Amino acid sequence: MKNLHKGLGLLLLLGLPLGAGIFAGRPPEPAGRRADGPAVSEANGSGRLVRDGIAVEFAVQPVDGTKPTEGMFADLRFRLSDAASGQPLAGQVPGAWLDRAPADDAKDGPGACRSRIGLYLKGLPGVRPLLDLTSYYLLILNQDPSITVIDPLTSVGGVSSMLTRIPLKRPPMDWVASPAERRLYVSLPEAGEVAVIDAERFQVIASVPAGRRPVRLALQPDGRYLWVGNDAPGEAGSGVTVIDTRSLKPVLQADTGRGHHEIAFCADSRHAFVTSREAGTLTVFDVASLERIREIRTGPHPLGVALSPLSGAVYVSDGEAGTLSVIDAASLETRKTIPVGRGIGPLAFAPDGRYGLVLNTPESRVAVIDAASDEVVHRLEVAAEPYQIAFTRAFAYVRGLASPRVSMIDLASLGKGREPGVLGFEAGPAAPRLAGDLPLASSLAPAGDDAALFVVNPVDNTAYFYMEGMNAPMSGYLNRGHTARAATVVQRSLRELEPGLFGARVRLPASGRLDVAFLLNQPQIAHCFGLEVQANPVLKRQRARLQVQYLVDGPGVVAGAPLALRFRLSTGDEAPQAGVRDLRVRYFLAPSSQPREVAAREVGEGIYEVPVELEQAGAYYLHVGAASLGLKFGDLPYLGLRAVPAGSGLAAGGH
Fold it and tell me: From which residue to which does the signal peptide run (predicted)?
């Protein structure tokens, strides 16, 4: 996704004006006048633009079939095609943003849409739209009971912006995201639970009982059931717990045998396959009935299991026997047993299912299996003591325990009789094993553009960003205040649903008139479509409790200059909330400086003032709280301020 920002960012060099602020505004432009373009046709939630021979069709479809409503989910769609032939434009990388439509056209002029997109692309703290569909978030699984959320596209003085921290009951072990990445499930072995996280708001929304020592998590391809591996010390309770992702309640607990459990599924979610390491078995469940239908002996010590959708078979690696059992996923009969070598363990197949990688940790080698022939076609030397695998479209990445080096295997170079290309790079100064105990969750996280990777080094507590084609990581994100163990990425970007059709399911962030800003890099097209969103009466009642309005001219201030911040506190009907004597403001310098608190005094009916000291340049975040109102810091919207050195000039923009 950094590639997307770099590509779209070229428009900044090609005439995108950056002087106009987001606080500046305009009324909806008549058809044919928005973003300096030719005639367009628009209705609420839809529109069609033709420019430079390219047709862009925009549509919004609420998931519940009603009108667009604040807080409800809707599908945003952009269809790109050749205006003359109607042929779809596949393989594009468009960007989109949702923000409030400005109200005063006189301040911005006809280039307003381009100007706002230019500000969004700069990634400045405090200059963010309501919803950014070119972005992603990096989530760091910590050794302590927490998850750190980082916005890699926003930086302050070269330092990444920590967005928030998600507290957990107990230290986490593994995690998995829902198919649409709206939820994140996290196993907590010491609590005997799975934490369910809203991946849009980054809050724990449920804690689900998950049996004894829930460790490995696996979500069916259709997303219906979450399967949890229970590593209980004895036979009783050692097996799987199945959780219904709709009701968030357990629907099955089944003992399958002693030892650690790995889990895989058929591509159509018909069968679930569960290994039991010490029992030496593969247990097969019928998902529709949640009944055990087969128990297969695969060897004395099964360590890994994976499905190849290409061959329609499940592969089970046995470290003691040194074999790979190939089991037909439909008939459940063993097709073949492939000798690979003692010490094999973790295995995974490339996304297309053709080649599988089987790691041999003691020998620091990887065996490559061709699913078309079920033969070993390569044996490759990789990073010392390999234990984790991740894939992008072009490469397989192998992480070693005994080396900071990450090996890269060129997938296009694999095949019988060919010489595979094996590259690599250093991700940090030391080997991961020096950090002590590590979770099951992977330290490798492919980034959103499918040509980059985050690698967590638990020794120096840093997540390194590597872009394919580089000799070394481009940057690193230090996890201040916590000890990083694993990483994953939550997408917020448009996806190509079919050739030329790009879309995303979003929660509409506000009511009123919104702008849906669209940007295509080649050819250069920037346009703002209009969208009217209805107020949500449920949310309106919730907001009636209390609201805060920060009385600032913009997000830019001078570092070190005295600042008296004023804000208005009111109820939902706009009645002032006066007489609050314990109102306080907590603020800190991003990403993770020591927070400060200061008392507020009332200077008008419902209007309060606090002196704040922003000595250093950077991004500050301010929260309001009051114990007498039951108002915790973070309950109300925060204020972001950007302090710049004196004499540098204040950057325009806001949010």
Answer: none
Q: Which of 562, 565, 644, 571 is nearest to 609 (CA)?
A: 565
**Tokens coding 524:** 């250069």
Chain centre distance of CA 569: 34
Is the Cβ–Cβ distance between 392 and 450 less than 8 Å?
Answer: yes
- The model's pTM is 0.74
Tokens standing for 41?
A: 């046709």
DSSP H helix total and E strand total for the chain:
3, 51
d(CA 6, CA 624): 36
- 46-51/302-308 β-pairing: unpaired
The pLDDT tens digits for 480-497 are 888 999 999 998 889 899
Contact yes or no for 358/365 (Cβ under 8 A): no
C-alpha 176, offset from chain centre: 11
Beta bridge partners of 47: 42, 58
Q: Quick one: 60 exposed, middle or buried, by C-beta within 10 A (0-12, 13-18, 19+)?
A: buried
Work out whether the CA dihedral 155, 156, 159, 165 comes out positive or negative. Answer: negative
Nearest one of 124, 132, 163, 111 to 651, comparing CA atoms: 124
Token output for 140: 């760091």
Task: Kindly indicate the confidence band of residue 642, based on its pLDDT and cuts at 50, 70 and 90.
Answer: confident
Res. 16: pLDDT tops 80: no
pLDDT at 449: 62
Closest CA to 303 of 332, 285, 324: 324
DSSP 238-289: -EEEEEETTTTEEEEEEE--SS---EEE-TTS-EEEEEETTTTEEEEEETTT
DSSP code, position 650 = P
User: 89 CB contacts (<8 Å, ≥6 apart)?
Assistant: 54, 80, 81, 82, 500
Domains and CATH numbers, the chain: 2-133+496-538 (2.60.40.1930), 544-644 (2.60.40.10)
Q: How far is CA 122 from the centre of its chain?
A: 20
Alpha-carbon span 4 to 450, nearest angstrom: 11
Give dist(CA 185, CA 263) in Å, integer.
15
Say if residues 186 and 172 touch (Cβ distance below 8 Å): yes
Q: Band the pLDDT of 654: cuts 50, 70, 90.
A: very low
Q: Is 299 exposed, middle or buried (0-12, 13-18, 19+ CB in 10 A)?
A: buried
The pLDDT > 70 percentage for the chain reads: 87
pLDDT class for 246, splitting at 50, 70, 90? very high
Q: Encode pLDDT of 290-330 as tens digits.
A: 999 999 999 999 999 999 999 999 999 999 999 999 999 99
Largest CA distance in the chain: 81
Judging by DSSP bridges, how do beta strands 556-558 and 639-644 pair with one another?
parallel
629 vs 298: CA distance, rounded Å: 62
Return d(Cα 75, Cα 531) in angstroms, integer.
Answer: 13
Cβ neighbours for 15, distance < 8 A, ≥ 6 positions apart: 114
Dig out the tokens for 605 from the structure.
Answer: 């009916």
Cα 631 from Cα 613, distance rounded (Å): 23
Alpha carbon distance 117, 521 (integer Å): 12
Of 180, 173, 181, give the one whose Cα is nearest residue 210.
173
pLDDT reading at 28 higher than 60: no
